């Protein structure tokens, strides 16, 4: 499969997560404070909670329900109660398009 358009870069607000679903795969897409775009799995591994409703701080996305923060680069939880990582997807930028292949995760 090839990368698909997830959203427009201009639609992303800095330090805010946006939920997108590509081929049934929910993702949280984030424009961090350094201007880098990240895509991680949108479901917290501690509970069935949408991470895109959480809080972005630096290179982390924190689950609003129980406070587990996940690295936007590795998907690894940085604190309890979560202990399992979420997938991290490769992001490509083409003009104003944010492209993601939901079948390809980063090796971290």
TrEMBL record:
Record-linked Gene3D superfamilies: Rieske [2Fe-2S] iron-sulphur domain
Highest taxon, organism lineage: Bacteria
Sorted UniProt keywords: 2Fe-2S, Iron, Iron-sulfur, Metal-binding
PROSITE patterns (UniProt xref): RIESKE (PS51296)
InterPro entries according to UniProt: Rieske_2Fe-2S (IPR017941), Rieske_2Fe-2S_sf (IPR036922)
MF terms (GO), sorted A to Z: 2 iron, 2 sulfur cluster binding; metal ion binding; monooxygenase activity; oxidoreductase activity, acting on paired donors, with incorporation or reduction of molecular oxygen
Pfam families the record matches: Rieske
Domain Rieske: 4-100
The keyword Metal-binding belongs to this UniProt entry's keyword annotation: yes
Name of the protein: Non-heme iron oxygenase ferredoxin subunit
Organism, scientific name: Microbacterium keratanolyticum
Lineage of the species this protein comes from: Bacteria, Bacillati, Actinomycetota, Actinomycetes, Micrococcales
């Amino acid at each position: 499969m090839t990368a698909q358009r997830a959203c427009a870069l201009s639609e992303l607000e800095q330090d805010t997560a946006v939920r997108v679903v590509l081929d049934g795969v929910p993702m949280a897409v984030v424009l961090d404070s350094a201007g880098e775009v990240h895509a991680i799995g949108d479901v917290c591994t501690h509970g069935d909670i949408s991470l895109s409703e959480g809080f972005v701080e630096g290179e982390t996305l924190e689950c609003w329900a129980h406070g587990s923060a996940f690295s936007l680069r590795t998907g690894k939880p940085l604190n309890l109660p979560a202990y399992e990582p979420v997938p991290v997807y490769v992001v490509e930028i083409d003009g104003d398009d944010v492209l993601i292949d939901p079948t390809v995760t980063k090796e971290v």
